[in-house]
């Protein structure tokens, strides 16, 4: 990072793309991340960028290139559409900037490899935004595995269901459910099990909206992953959940099990002659995961400022893409597919 | 106990009174208590006694005196109406039999003292049936106190609510809510806190059924107990609870808190757009407390056979009576009443 | 059923095999089932049979044939070793007796078909002992599906883990984990989803005890079932669980989800500076499932006495066997196997 | 409010006192409250005020008078030490400003009455900062009462325990535990029960730190409140709780009960051979109650902008002071004290 940042011990972050996720990152870095500031933003939609820049009194750059090149920017946060990630990542790497890139790196493995090669050549820090690793509940499951509390790990189970499907226009460019949605769970499986996945068996179908099927995608999937160390992970996903954003992880080992349960909107409940009733699961992903995004930024900033490896590396970004490609092939051919077949 | 029992290492129990609670004891001893058998029953209602005796193929005695005197009986379980307890207890003591007496010993302190004197003179084991001490959840709270897990105890909170009030005919002979219902919680307070109660402040009122008020009783009470060691216990009671038999205990100390929560009829639940829903609390006291009755019998039998003190002594039966008398006086005069004032 | 039973409206049950499960059935029918009595028992191990017969004061028959033929027996409960089930079932059917048969009917599909043919020819009631359907929590999940509370069902998830593996001598004759242990979950999947399974993908491995692997079996399995109606069920099984008998079911549909959670040994818990702590999951299958066995008997007795279909039919006994055979094939060939391939 | 604010439909808030609670209010209004902005701050500790003013780029006034008089300020938030509240409140009222005043209004009833008289004379909106009413869980309990879900209310139970006691220097000026800490629970009792309190019985003692006793205060109290409508509320307070900030409310009525349970730091948990373990209760009051402060601001702003009554009125600020005075008298004289005796 630049001398200026070193002098101040604060990381100056330039944010590329300030749509829903990008503007959230801007707000978090500006208001809740101790060691970092937003120093500028860019978006192809200039009005959106202007509003965000105005709200936080930061520079609105006229192009991604200008932001990347600016000596006010120590780290570039890439929050643009997926198909632009690698070009921006390569540009940022070549300028020597630390990089925070939203998931997925790309839908194209060769593109990912081009990006990772540029990062490696430049020797810059790269973090891929798998924020769920930083959720305190999910992390406690992984820690129970890593610290030996569960003994030898045997089975992992991940449930992830969105409150409602995105618009078809988004589905069309999403890369499909495995690369858009399940990719978080693929990452979680590697994170919790601490072992690479070697084989994928997936079932995908349409149970929410036929328009998703017509777009060539699935809205509901069940996946079995076999890890190198013999552990088996199951994943249940759905694009629609009536009771809110269902986010759970469990791990089972020779000495016990660990669970990360859903949150509730509040912890009030009643008991009447009709039984017990309690609150909904939070409906919006930010209500559940904002603290994980803050934790992620804090860890990223500490790693970059401290010259340590980033918490989620480029290889952590690459592996789930392979798993997604294998899952697509598995559904198409209704058979288990080895990772080696797709990568 | 008799030589015969010593030889067989099994305790032969004669049960006096086989109404609801007495016939439950017969069933439990016959079917679920390892070291004891029912050897005979008696009830002033001969048909009821005959049905129970027939069901378990045991002797139906023609009088309480015969049962008490029988050399088939090592221990006498007194499950008759409260006003007969002390006479039977004295008779059993004088015959040298071990005694299991349902709560309360009596509504009359001088009667209790007469009974305890007889027990002491005879040197026989006496156990008073405060079964809730043997509930695994409640016991875990007391153990957390006794084992020091909670540090120095500060506050105890007990909630006990019945699904529905008994008939007015029962209210009329019950001795009032404090001696009939709260007496269990008075015992629980002493058990959990491990310290005698020195002062009682109680509020009692009618919120369930005016007929209970017309009978000179309350159906809802809130009580504060001050223990000798400075701990303060609160008790909430009500004769009616729409959601089932509400039975909870909590204890708070310098190092933490312990809770005994309600059970549920089952552990199924749903989550829908309307929120979470779960099952009722069991509605019937036996659904919650049957295991506590079995544990109580096992501990009583082990104590008698092993020549050890019974788990709930005569003094444990006397103390809650004093607390109930103090509570009645406290409500009547709306002031805290020292136990020393009533005993 | 016989005229005698009709006259008395009580079902007289003869129990074949009084090992662990058979003697439990005897105790339940004798003590806790309202409309039935045990009228006799038989076991090839005569001393065991004598002890049980003595405990309940019922006839000990000298042979299975005598018990089946006896006019004291309205219904035959077959609780012997699996390889003897079908011969006894055929004999009981030919004698016109109602039949309660423990699971699995047989490890051999042709044997099952021989048995079902005999039952059909005789027109006698047959119930297969999948007791978990009668667990109140699991049943609440199935009811939430059947009553439409969950909308259109999409995914089912079943977790079943034993506290500890059986001895290798049992493993050797068990038919393998899928036919011995998972068979309960195969039944649960059909019960909850209300739809036949058409394809099975299974992974099986050894993570508990290599001796189980040496015996040609697995001790840990993960299974994906595809139902005729498109629903997908996942099953996680393990022969060893450090925290007790892990028994959970969940179902997810368009309108919500339903869960049957584990029980706890009690509902006491503590909160200290180290966090919260709570009790274990019950360690023994009877601690969890006794009420389900009682419910099963009550429903079976009501069906037989009332001339209604039994709650779990012969076809319900046959289908999970096919699923187990498909699962074995799936693991061996590491591919999804259609039920049509094995049956 | 001023014309300017009316024109912009945003409320401009000036904050008096920017210590721990005041600077929190500044941050919340600046970052998380939709319809309001901070327009200036004042603190007798100028450096503290400067830091806060700088952080949010707002005016630092040289005196409370200047802030109150400023035409940039529509509403005055009084977050100074308790003994200064009424003078500032009167000054703000006389200037026609809307007022948000932290609890307690004053420790002196005549002072409170002087303040409320000034507010009434000026006709300005006044809100007293009892934020816990705006906690979603606690509110759900009150709503269950208010909406009739619980039928006729009978008993309320409030538990409130701080993680650790404040310094003795704070204790010395706090007005004592009843006016400093229990005052929140006094407010909660009125809020949940929807009925004034007419009598108080309180016990107070020292179990945490003798220095608190030496300062003439208690660190642990148990209180019984009798409401005008016959409902009885119990309150358990302690200045120290090993497991975090214990904040619970429950209400019991003829048709059921409602509970507001503690939160957890996260919802991960484990099950091992040692039982279950789970996370701590949040240790810091802001971790639990930040959303309640945000809700409170939103409701206050909406009320002022919309010309509606504030959610917590001056009388809502006065009543708990009376309850605290009665509680002090009750402990001193060990008897129930009618509110009429102290007000």
Report on this structure:
The structure is a homotetramer of 343-residue chains. In chain A, 42% of the residues lie in helices and 24% in strands. In chain A, the strands form three sheets. Chain A has a seven-stranded mixed sheet. Chain A has a six-stranded parallel sheet with strand order 3-2-1-4-5-6, with helices on both faces. Chain A is globular and about 60 Å long. The first copy, chain A, starts with a helix and ends with a helix. The first copy, chain A, is of the alpha/beta class and 343 residues long. The model of chain A is unreliable at 1-7 (pLDDT under 50). Chain A contains 14 helices and 15 strands. Chain A has helices at residues 3-8, 20-31, 46-56, 64-69, 85-94, 109-122, 136-146, 168-173, 177-180, 182-193, 210-214, 285-306, 314-333, 339-342; strands at 11-16, 36-42, 59-60, 75-78, 98-101, 126-128, 153-161, 197-205, 220-227, 232-238, 246-253, 256-260, 268-272, 275-278, 337-338. Chain A folds into two domains: 3-124, Rossmann fold, CATH 3.40.50; 133-283 and 319-342, 2-Layer Sandwich (Dihydrodipicolinate Reductase, domain 2), CATH 3.30.360.10. Chains in contact: A-B, A-C, A-D, B-C, B-D, C-D. The A-C interface holds A 151-152, 154-155, 157, 159, 161, 201, 203, 205, 207-208, 220, 222, 224, 226, 230, 232, 234, 236, 238, 240-243, 246, 252, 254-257, 334-336 and C 151-152, 154-155, 157, 159, 161, 201, 203, 205, 207-208, 220, 222, 224, 226, 230, 232, 234, 236, 238, 240-243, 246, 252, 254-257, 334-336. Strand 14 of chain C pairs antiparallel with strand 14 (275-278) of chain D, so a sheet runs across the interface.
């Amino acid at each position: 990072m630049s001398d200026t940042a070193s002098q101040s011990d604060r990381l100056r972050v330039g944010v590329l793309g300030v749509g829903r996720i990008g503007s959230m990152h801007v707000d978090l870095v500006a208001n809740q991340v101790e060691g970092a500031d937003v120093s500028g933003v860019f978006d192809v939609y200039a009005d959106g960028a202007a509003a965000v820049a105005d709200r936080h009194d930061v520079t609105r750059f006229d192009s991604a290139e200008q932001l990347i090149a600016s000596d006010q920017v120590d780290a570039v946060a890439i929050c643009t559409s997926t198909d632009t990630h690698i070009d921006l990542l390569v540009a940022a790497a070549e300028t020597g900037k630390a990089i925070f890139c939203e998931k997925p790196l790309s839908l194209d493995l060769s593109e990912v490899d081009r990006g990772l090669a540029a990062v490696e050549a430049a020797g810059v820090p790269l973090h891929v935004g798998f924020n769920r690793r930083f959720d305190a509940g999910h992390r406690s499951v992984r820690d129970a595995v890593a610290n030996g509390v569960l003994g030898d790990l045997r089975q992992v189970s991940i449930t992830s269901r969105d409150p409602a499907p995105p618009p078809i226009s988004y589905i069309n460019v999403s890369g499909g459910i495995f690369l858009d949605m399940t990719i978080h769970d693929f990452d979680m499986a590697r994170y919790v099990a601490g072992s690479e996945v070697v084989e994928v068996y997936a079932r995908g179908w349409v149970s929410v909206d036929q328009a998703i099927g017509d777009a060539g995608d699935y809205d509901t999937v069940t996946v079995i992953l076999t890890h190198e160390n013999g552990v088996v992970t199951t994943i249940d996903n759905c694009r629609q959940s009536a009771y809110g954003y269902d986010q759970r992880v469990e791990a089972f080992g020779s000495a016990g099990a660990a669970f990360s349960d859903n949150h509730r909107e509040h912890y009030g409940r009643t008991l009447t002659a009709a039984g017990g009733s309690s609150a909904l699961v939070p409906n919006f992903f930010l209500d559940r995961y904002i603290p994980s995004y803050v934790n992620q930024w804090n860890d990223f900033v500490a790693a970059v400022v401290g010259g340590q490896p980033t918490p989620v590396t480029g290889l952590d970004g690459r592996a789930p893409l392979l798993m997604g490609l294998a899952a697509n092939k598995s559904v198409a051919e209704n058979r288990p597919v080895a990772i080696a077949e797709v990568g």
